[in-house]
Each structure stands twice: as C-alpha cells, then as structure tokens.
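Hello everyone,

My group is preparing for a crystallization screen and wants a predicted model to guide construct design. The compound we'll soak is magnesium ion. Before spending weeks at the bench, it would help to have a computed complex in hand. I've included the protein sequence and the ligand's SMILES below. Output in structure-token form would be ideal because that's what our pipeline reads.
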Amino acid sequence: MSPVGTALAGQREARARFTPGAPGAPVIALRNVTKHYRSGGGIDDVTLEVHPGEVFGFLGPNGAGKTTTIRLLVDLIRPDRGELSIFGLDPRRDGIAVRRRIGYLPGDLVLYEKMTAGELLLHFARLRGGPGSPEIEALAEQFALDLRTPIAALSKGNKQKVGFLQAVMGTPELLVLDEPTTGLDPLVQHQAHELLRAVAGSGRTVFLSSHFLSEVQQVADRVAMIKAGRVVAVESVAGLRSRSVHLVDVRTVERLEPEAFSRLPGVGALQATDFSAHFEFAGPLDPLVRELSRLALADLSIREPDLEDVFLSYYDGHDDTAAPSPALGRAGSDGER
Amino acid sequence: MASGSPHRALRAGRGGTVFRRALSEHRLVLGGWFAGLGLYCAAMLAVFPTIHGNRAFAKLVESYPDAFRSMFAVADFTTGPGYLRGEIFSLMGPILVVLLALLWGSDLTAGEEERHTIDLLLANPVSRRRVVGEKWAAMAVGVTAVTSVFAIVPLAGNPIVHLGVGVARLLGVVVATAFTALLFGTLALAVAAATGRRGLARGVAAALAVASYLVSSLADLVSFLRPVRPLSPWYQAIGVDPLTHGFSWRLLIVVGLTAVLVAVSLATFERRDLAVS
Ligand SMILES: Nc1ncnc2c1ncn2[C@@H]1O[C@H](COP(=O)(O)OP(=O)(O)OP(=O)(O)O)[C@@H](O)[C@H]1O
Ligand SMILES: [Mg+2]
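Reply:
Good plan to model first. Here are the tokens for the complex, ready for your pipeline.
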C-alpha cells in the first residue's frame, strides 16, 4: 500500500494550507450559463454550485455539454449569457488569480509531443511558479511513470497519466478534470480515485466529468446530470443510488419459486422459469443478496443499468411516485428520440 | 491576492517560460534555415569573382528587358553591392525569410489551437497577452537570427572575394530584411489570432507579400502603380536600396505597422473563444 499511501499523505498534508473564503460559499457557481457554438450545440441555462471539500461529478452522454461547461470555467471560451464565478471571482476578469488556484485536465488532451514527460511537467510547473522537481518525481514514482520517456513514445494511458499529474501537481485548491480516467487501466484508475478522495478529504474541491455512473458513484459526493446541454438533475450520490435500478439474472441448480423474488420489495418486471429468473431491483442490494444466499445458484449477474436508464428513472421519480422499475420498460421507446 | 496568502507556492509563473520554450521548440528548424541560406550565400559569393568587372556580362545584362530587370533587380551585377542586391537582397533573401516568418506567425496561436495543445497552455495562470507576447518575441529573435546569415556569410567571405561593401550598410539591409519578414509574420499572426485558422492566415499574408513586392518592384515601369508604391512595405524597407543609399528612416514605417499588428493580435486573441468552430 506504500506508493499510494505516500501520495495520499502528500495530498492530505495540504489540509491546513487551504482556507476557503467565506464559510459555505461555493467554490464554483454557475447561474443560467448559456453557450452556443456557431456550428450548433452548446449548453443552455446551466445552474450549478460546487462546495468546498466536495467531489462533484458531472455526468452525461457524448455531446451533452460537459466539455463546454468545463472550458468555460477555465476561460478558454466565454458564455453568451449567465454568470460564472470561481472562488467568488470572475474567471475572465480575474482569470490569472482564478487559474493560479486550479489544476485542469482537458478532455481533449494533447501534449507537446517532442518533450519528455519530465520536461513537460516541469514546463507547466514553471508557468505556475511551482512545484519543483522533487514533487514531480514523487508523483511520477507513485503513478509508475517514467519521466525520461518522450511524450510521443508514451502509450495513450500513460499520456493521460501525464495529463492527470499535470493537473494535480502543486496541490491546487480546485481540480477541474474532464474525463480524467479515460484510458487508464483499472489499477491506475483506482489510484487516481483514491487521490481525488484525499484531495476532498483535505478540504480542497474536485469537479470531474465522466460517462460512467459507476465511476462517479465511487468518487463523488454529488452528481449533476447533463443531457443535450441542460442539467436535468443534481443529486447526492446516496440519493442517486437509492433511485437506481439493477438488472438481475439468476440461474439455479434446483427448481426455484418465483414468489421468493416477487415478495421482495424493489423487485419489478419479473420473468421466471423453473431454473431462472430475470428482474429489476431498486434500492440497497442487501435484502436481495440475503434472499439469493438461500438459493443453490448456478449463475448470477447483477448489472447496473446504463446512464440513459438512470436518467429515465430519475424523470420517473419526479413525474410520479411509482417505483422506478417501469423506467426500464420505457427506456427502449424513449431512448430513441 | 494578498501576498501573505497560503497560495504562495502557486504564484505567478516565471516570466520568459513561454519565450524560451518557443525558441527551443524551433531550434532545429532555425538551424536548418540558417544552414540552408548560408550555403546559398556562400555559393553566390563563390561565383562573384567571375562576374566582378566583367564588361561582357554587364552588356548582356543591359540587353535584358526593363520589366525583367526591375522585377529581379538586375542592375550593376559587376560591383559587390550590386551583386549582393541582385542575388540576395532584392528577392531571394527576403522572400525566403518572409516565408519563414509567415509560417511561424500563422502557427503561433492557431497551430496550438488546431493541435489542441492550447487548453493545457492557457489554463495556467498566464494571460493570453503574455503568451502571445512571449511567442511573438521568440519569433522576432528567431527570424532576426536567421536573417543575420545574410550579413555573416558576406562579411566572412569579403577578404577572399572583395565585395567592397561596408559593414554598416550590410547590417542596415539585413535589419531592413528582417523587419520586413517580421511585418508579414505579424500579419499572419494577426489573421490567425482573430480567426484561429492557420491556412487562412498563411494565404492572406502570402498574397499581400507578393502583391506588395510587385507594386514595389514594377512601379518604376508602370506609372499607375507609382502613387500606391508608398503603401508597399517592401518599398519602404528595401525598395530604395539600403546597400547603396544607407539606412532610411522609412524603415520606421514598417516597424510602426508591425507594432500596430501586434497590438491588434493581442486585442483580438484576448476576446476569442479558443479552439472552437
Ligand atoms: N469546439 C467546438 N466547436 C464547435 N462545437 C462544439 C465544440 N465543442 C463542442 N461542440 C458542440 O457542443 C455540444 C456539446 O459538446 P461537448 O464537447 O461539450 O460535450 P461532452 O459532454 O463533453 O461530450 P463527450 O462526452 O463526447 O466529451 C456538441 O453538440 C458539440 O458538437
Ligand atoms: Mg467532452
């Protein structure tokens, strides 16, 4: 556990150094932010608040507007309408003061190919007036990155690592990460998640976008879901989890009784034969697992529904108070709009 | 920000970082241009002794059509200054360094936008002005360094081939050439900074460079071009030969135009959405 352990310790030490301005004041605040590209697409009336010390997940399908929102935060593009503030400052007027406190990882990451990983990290460190090589070397060692390799010779995942380390180095108060774990192998992904949790643990703030509900559930405290340029939901991860549905497939060695499932609260759309059952399950998995442990299982799969289904089950929860299960029934027809 | 803030570790970055990287990124390209143009100059100098004072060649040149002679500045090939002017400073030399400068200027911001490296650069605590300013300064140094080969090689060869050109005049024409190149490089930058489009920037700058060269060189023959000739930077910088007439304050017009274009580039780049279409 040692390499990750040291990385986390380093990130935790930062705790004392960061004192958010007014207590409770949001680190990021967007109010009715609208941005349209000339070629079409963009975001509409996005309103969000991210608080100090939280990991905030920004979830949405391709083309939903995640990157657009994130590039507005670092002043690479400017809003058509609406208000943006970071640390209570205007990202455009006070751009330098704001960006001094941000670590940013672009979604469309392209690095200077001709530099080595070490040269590139040191170059950006100099642009920020710190950190020095010892911190860079420590981070690289923790993430098993060879700093002497030219960027052009790095694999996709290792390039992503360089981008990630570039964002987190120097313990910035706010991390703005656009799909930070794409291309990383599961082990490194896990390391990255742990580091982000440590960042939040030290009172700093993380804003990250993702396609994967599972990723966001692992690291985030709250989630905003964006679809076609509009934020459709902002939820705590706990709330989302209670609303989300699992797809369960059971095959048994002995004949099973469908009633075993149908009487469980949270089960819906049950289809059963003598030796198999397929159903949707809402809520915490504990009662289900307890029920399953009574059976002689031949095979079992419990899948998370995809993002689209979660969106739909969210809408459902608001349209009426019915159990979320019918959402999946509608996913087929609604999903094709 | 208060200077006693805990964020001292992340204070403003060190100045000159972008400048140094821009130069080091181009060092191979610059070396190549320097060597190539140096070889061209050396070859030209090697031929000079066979033409120096050669009356038959002078007669031949006089028989060329006027249009041809003014377009390619073939005048008194048989003297050192005339030879340098005809072979290097009237066309080949400036055209090549203008090309270098406009390729560089068009790439300065738009290259990073098109390659998508601009996000990582500008998300740092640096202003867009500083990034463009430092990159422009690197271009100015690089273009001037390459152009200096047109003084270095003739000065080095002078003891052998006896050009009979003064150092001051040679430096004067080299500076004029470098500034002309920088003007067109900055023009390319201005178009690129305003649009984010490298190809467009190159096209506009190249078209204006060629057109203003033709205006400058043909106005002696074509009377209706004469009134517009002062608009041509080529004419202002090197149209009245600095090798024979010495430094002219007209070069300041070129410098002033460049300064205006730098200011325009900084202002438009500041306002734009970057890397969007
Ligand atoms: N640089 C750009 N120029 C023009 N249009 C753009 C640009 N970036 C995004 N768009 C458009 O804006 C919309 C939102 O795109 P955005 O990149 O913000 O989505 P995203 O949620 O980041 O998607 P992905 O998950 O694929 O990264 C899309 O319709 C896209 O076509
Ligand atoms: Mg994106």
